[in-house]
Automatic annotation (TrEMBL):
Its cofactor is FMN; [4Fe-4S] cluster. Belongs to the complex I 51 kDa subunit family. This is NADH-quinone oxidoreductase subunit F. GO terms for molecular function: NADH dehydrogenase (quinone) (non-electrogenic) activity. NDH-1 shuttles electrons from NADH, via FMN and iron-sulfur (Fe-S) centers, to quinones in the respiratory chain. SUPFAM superfamilies: Nqo1 FMN-binding domain-like, Nqo1 middle domain-like, Nqo1C-terminal domain-like. Keywords: 4Fe-4S, Flavoprotein, FMN, Iron, Iron-sulfur, Metal-binding, NAD, Oxidoreductase, Quinone, Translocase. The gene is nuoF. It comes from Chitinophaga defluvii. The keyword NAD applies. It is an enzyme of class 7 (translocase).
Amino acid sequence: MMERPLTEHISSTRAPLNLQEYEAVGGYQALRKVMQQMTPQEVTALIKESNLRGRGGAGFSTGMKWSFVPMEVSGPKYLVANADEMEPGTFKDRWLLEGNPHQLIEGMIISAYAIQATLSFVFLRWAYKQAAQEIRKAIAEAYAAGYLGNNILGKDFHLEMQLHTGVGRYMCGEETALLNSLEGKRATPRAKPPFPQVSGLFGKPTIVNNVETLSFIPHIINKGASWFQSLSYTSDGGTKIYGVSGKVNKPGAWELPMGVTMRELLEDHAGGMKNGYRFRGALPGGASTDFLIEEHLDVKMDFTGVAAAGSRLGTGTMVVLDDKTCPVGFVHNLEHFFAQESCGFCTPCREGLPWTEKILYALEQGRGTAADLEQLLLHTRLLGPGNTFCALAPGAMEPLQSALKYFREDFEQHIQAKKCPYAHDSH
């Protein structure tokens, strides 16, 4: 039977496990094992060996990231769970936060021990009210049980944990902007280097990991690195929470072996396209990834496979484009979002994204010209990687550049017909 370590104890028909229920299914056993038998270095080595790659989008080796923390430096170190899930089309972390908060908290305590952090934060998206309630309750239970605070499980290890609710900026998903926000400053990204592992929150060594990443930690401690690798179809270890939204029969999220194909996700889990709709393409990992089309349906949805097909796995949550939805309107909607969410810190992003959005709006309104397509192509280069301070604008260009590549005839029809050809369709 297929193992689903992250979600096996999550059910939509009941409240999340409280502390006693979580302990009854093996909760906090990994923390006990770590405190009794493992040094911080051994924890980091095990996570590195498991090949757990960051589930927030970048896919960087988690153990490798931890190993960059200068352990010899005295003074405070910090751990932050990035729960600021604002990528359009992405809803995987919400499932874990609302469904099994103790799993995240145990993962955070073990991770904090590995880097010897003394203070940890759950940086939560402002709109996740239910999650906030569950996390607060779980943190209080963990304190009462002695899993947080001073001398955890009798060991000379102290950890405080706080819930911090963000103010609702997409920018806070970028780890250095998140740290600025946590310090009470404007959410703008920082220059790197120095990287947060060396100089992060308040200038101290800091690790920022995604909710899904941290939730895996107790399971890897309990069952080992080779078990984690065996869950996957490919060399990227573990399971992955995949999602599908759009005109499919059963939109949702599922925990599946890393490396399932787009076709399996779409047909077996999301129930295929709704009657009367045809698949045209999908953003495989949330709004800031390149479109993949029908010829890519057998691509393995892992970091390597999706990259080889010309996109990114990102968050693994697929946004489907159907044949009755205008690709120009689809991309305009996304660029409107990204333009709004730019922090304004660097000129290409601040000026380029609203300009891109205006051009797409003009095309949708039937006021576009052939020169507009050249302008859009130019922007995909000028706002691309290496030209902006952080990855927001390059990410925003991914759906646009791939739409111009795969759906160019749709853009041209808008210009020739002087209107959106899809305008008469009911959406």
